[in-house]
Design goal:
- The complex is a heterodimer of chains A (329) and B (204).
- Chain A has 329 residues and is mainly α.
- In chain A, 67% of the residues lie in helices and 2% in strands.
- The termini of chain A are far apart.
- In chain B, strands 2-3-5 form a three-stranded antiparallel beta sheet.
- Chain B folds into two domains: 50 residues, no CATH class; 111 residues, 2-Layer Sandwich (Alpha-Beta Plaits), CATH 3.30.70.3270.
- The radius of gyration of chain B is 30 Å and the shape is elongated.
- The chains are: A mainly alpha (329), B alpha+beta (204).
Chain lengths: 329, 204
């Protein structure tokens, strides 16, 4: 392996880690501000101008808090569970092209860590592994409510992986590749080429499933509000809880990148306008996560399962079948 | 505004049953209901409502230590001791009624005869840790001397937080400037009381 390639990859990994760790923090700020505005509140105002340094204050708090390992927990699993959540969230980022390739000081940079030819499969698989964070954390916590929430979370995750996989199958059949770069090339002709026009059902299904995969509000069942406690994270404190948090927000950002890349043309032809377009689309999807949290109530677990198995999965299968017929004839 | 509509006990007036259709029993009916609910777009109504509130930016937050809500004159917070408008001396005559009526036993006063042979309050404290801010002291006071003020920020390092007579008394410079606020709430004389006063029946 070339040394230059190795150095470039390491730099890219570090940059992605740093940017998205920071973004996860700033994401909490945006979430609190936007939710506050939608509920006619002001949100954080006291730390720094317009509360901008609230993120730093929260970070200091999380880092300096005592790391409590309660009695009766299975300590090794309890300790590793948050790391799984955060690590898998960042590992999924390896196959996401965040920007089109650009030239920096005469050196062509590909802003993707590894353009593997099974990109989307890899991303979905790694996000599926992310399930083990809440599951193991909840099971190791020696707390009934953590266990309940872990079981609920596992059910939701596993069910909605089916939706994600089946809904994405139809676009994959059309593109004929699993690489996100290829997806982008397929749609690079402009707005008319976007997959969302030919696969609107798959787009909506994938979007709905993204809420379940990231555990956001309409499907926010892993931390059940009705139990007044934080679900699988109840026994966690300090930075271990913070890792769960970072993982959740990093997941939100990455899925907000994946949806436009798959369905909405990604960065288009690779010009600066296209790159800005991708960032704008990502921002919209991230904003929509917060928006829907302000607007919609949570659904019950049985309603969620009903929605998954009786509505979304048949729709996804029908979509795949129709796509197949259209492609065949 | 007519009083009839409040006095009417005929609850059937104006009441009507909301038109709710029966829940579907068979599978086809349930399916139709799901499709109807799905396509009715109520989720977008919710989205629009919160987005509209965000765009209107009609923020109701009060940044408390910097801003405060105005409180009503009847609010019963930390007590105040008033001065007489005519002579700027203290209104309290040391009658001890407030000490007597205080149901949580938090008022303690001591009086003595001063050099002009007048009764004078020598000690007066209110234990704010015990005070339940019921307002009886203000109500019973014959001179309108003790009243409740609007100062509600009385956090303290210890539970037995006393307030002294001197702290409650209107400062003399405030009095000289004519800025003593007259209590218009609990136990106070209602406005225009002079016009409404009647002779007692014995005087006829």
């Amino acid at each position: 392996m070339e040394t230059a390639y190795l150095i470039e990859t390491v730099i890219k990994v570090v940059v992605i880690l740093l940017i998205f760790s920071a973004l996860a923090g700033i994401g909490t700020y945006f979430e609190r501000k936007i939710l506050a505005f939608m509920q006619r509140r002001l949100g954080p105002m006291n730390v720094g101008p317009y509360g901008l340094l609230q993120v730093a204050a929260d970070g200091v708090k999380l880092f300096t808090k005592e790391d409590i390992i309660p009695t009766n927990v299975v300590a090794p699993i309890f300790k590793i569970a948050p790391v799984i959540t955060a690590a898998t969230a960042f590992m999924a980022a390896a196959a996401i092209p965040f920007l089109p390739q650009f030239t920096l000081f005469g050196y062509t940079v590909h802003p993707i860590v590894a353009d593997i030819n099974i990109g989307i499969l890899y991303i979905l698989g790694i996000m599926g592994v992310g399930l083990y964070g809440p599951l193991l954390g909840g099971m190791a916590s020696a707390n009934k409510f953590s266990l309940l929430s872990a079981a609920r979370g596992a059910a939701v995750f596993i069910s909605y992986e089916v939706i994600t996989g089946l809904s994405i199958l139809a676009p994959i059949m059309m593109v004929g590749s699993l690489s996100l770069i290829d997806f982008n090339e397929y749609q690079s002709g402009g707005i008319g080429d976007w997959i969302v026009w030919s696969q609107p059902v798959a787009f909506v299904l994938f979007w709905i499933a993204a809420f379940a995969e990231t555990g956001r509000t309409p499907f926010h069942l892993i931390a059940n509000d009705h139990e007044i406690i934080d679900g699988f994270g109840t026994e966690y404190s300090g930075m271990r809880w913070g890792l769960f948090f970072i993982g959740e927000y990093a997941n939100m950002f990455f899925i907000s990148f994946v949806i436009p890349l798959l369905f909405l043309g990604g960065y288009g032809d690779g010009s600066i306008l296209g790159a800005l377009g991708l960032l704008a689309k990502m921002s919209f999807f991230f904003f929509f996560f917060l928006w829907s949290r302000a607007a919609w109530p949570d659904v019950r677990p049985d309603q969620l399962m009903w929605l998954c198995w009786k509505v979304l999965m048949p729709l996804a299968v029908i979509n795949v079948v129709i796509t197949g017929f259209v492609m065949m004839f | 505004m007519h009083k009839e509509q409040f006095n009417s006990r005929n609850v059937n007036n104006g009441y009507y049953l909301v038109d709710i259709e029966d829940y579907p029993q068979d599978g086809w009916g349930k399916f139709k209901r799901v499709v109807r609910r799905t396509l009715r777009g109520e989720l977008f109504v919710g989205l629009w409502v919160v987005l509209r509130e965000m765009i209107k930016f009609d923020i109701h937050t009060i940044e408390y230590p910097l801003e405060k809500m105005p409180i009503g004159p009847r609010y019963r917070a930390v007590h105040e001791m008033k001065r007489l408008w005519e002579s700027d001396t203290e209104r309290c005559i040391g009658c001890g009624l407030c000490e007597k009526i205080c149901i949580s036993d938090c008022i303690r006063m001591d009086t003595r005869i001063d050099e002009n042979s007048r009764k004078e309050v020598s000690q007066y404290t209110i234990n704010l840790g015990r005070c339940i801010f019921c307002g009886y002291c203000a109500e019973v006071c014959p001179e309108l001397a003790i009243t409740h003020g609007g100062e509600y920020e009385n956090a303290s390092e210890q539970r037995e937080h006393f307030i002294m007579y001197e702290d409650m008394l209107t400062p003399i410079d405030t009095m000289k400037a004519g800025k003593q606020l007259e209590f218009e709430g609990f136990g106070a004389i209602t406005p225009h009381e002079d016009e409404r006063v009647k002779k007692t029946p014995l005087a006829y």
